[in-house]
Amino acid sequence: MHRHCNCNQLRAEESVATAQRPVAEQLTCPQLGWRFSAEMAVVRYGNAAAAQCIWPYRWSAVCSSWWPYILVLCTLTLPLRVVARSSDAFGGYPTVFSIDEEDGMLETSELIRKYGYPVEQYEITTADGYILTLTRIPPMRTKSDHSLPVLLVHGLFASSADFLIIGPNNSLAYLLADQGHDVWLADLRGNRYCRRHTHLSSDSREFWDYTWHEIGYYDLPATIDHVLSVTGARRLHYIGYSQGTTVFFVLASTRPEYNAKIARMYALSPAVYVQQVRSPIFRWLAENGPAVKCFLDAVGMWQVLPHNPVQYALQRTLCPARIARPVCVHLIEQMVGPNPNGTDRLAQHIMAGHNPSGASSKQLLHFAQLNRCGRFQQFAYERTDQNLAHYGREQPPAYNLSAVTAPVALFYALNDWMVGPANVVRLAAELPNVVSLTEVQDPHFNHLDFVAAKRVRALVYDSILEQLRDL
Hints:
Blueprint: H1 7-12, H2 23-26, E1 28-29, E2 34-37, E3 43-44, E4 47-48, E5 52-54, H3 59-65, H4 67-76, H5 108-114, E6 120-125, E7 130-137, E8 150-153, H6 172-178, E9 183-186, E10 196-197, H7 212-231, E11 236-241, H8 243-254, E12 262-268, H9 280-298, E13 303-304, H10 311-318, H11 327-336, H12 345-354, E14 359-360, H13 361-373, H14 384-391, E15 408-412, H15 421-430, E16 434-439, H16 449-452, H17 456-470
Parallel strand pairs: 8-9, 8-11, 11-12, 12-15, 15-16
Antiparallel strand pairs: 1-2, 2-5, 3-4, 6-7, 7-9, 7-10, 13-14
Helix pairs in contact: 7-8, 9-13, 10-12
């Protein structure tokens, strides 16, 4: 039995409801012990916040009690200013793939061209005004009559490069193209390729006022409809990784008419239920999500981990090739799970040139809510009257997974510290049309391995390719 909790009650343990307070008192951050002055404004990176944080305690108390929030601010939001030494410019990272270090400096379309594949790019506009980039690797030979387009959808803080990083003969996008499939790579709002809107500036708070719910409800329909329009197909195959699965289940449950447009959905580490999380970093964020969000809002930071061209050089400086297991590797392992023998050092390094790619702080808080509440539900606002205004009820509604009638193939890993096996088994029990539930046959396979492991083709991708051939 899984507990259905009252998220407002959980947040009430951390903050006092402010609906009836005077304006000057409403501008508070009780999770952090802060108060605000309504008469003043603070500007951060060109954004004017509505109030200024005033810290009422001694700096010694700040350092001893609230340093984690300052650390979060520094690691998630500050622009990178470190430039690599010229002596560390290129080379040295071991790899089993046919890739090179330049790949971390190329955009998605440039990567595809570099390895000899044709590429097309499209711009699509969602119903709520976000302008998205959609990349296509068109079939290199005549498609068979039964071949359908394949849409690949990336994870949180990531981009379409997820499916290209380990190069030809290994990355899923190239493998699909080699078999004659019409391959489409989505990029979702807020990442490095999708920071435009018909009338909102990406420097504004309004631009970042979304969670992955809006991605599933707006971005995916616009993307799917465009793919079907261009190709003339009536259905497509959908392959999602991590958050790329989350948004699919939002779409299929809230706009069930789209189930008829999905021939089969392949879910790699489906992030729907995220309890039993082993990552200490995610657990800390889940426990302190409201406070972190309040902190970021207070300093005018509504996005986290934005892409910065300097991040690739920073990776080389902090984690040079000469060190077998540098701090970068240990940090990643604390997020996704350790797999030292299965991790390709060069692929992991190249990934730092593409990810993080940006997301809204609200997306992160929404995942934190799933962890704390234990159910797949819409975003819970801080006050009951906000939930009433958005949903017509005091509690956010749960997504109706029984409405997901599209056939779904689930893949999970035993060493996934973000989405544990029990979460996927629970999801499988609640979906009405699961065609397969596959455990990756490597006990060390982790969350990131679904896109970057040395043996991901043999352990995961070959199964997908075989299923596509048989349909």
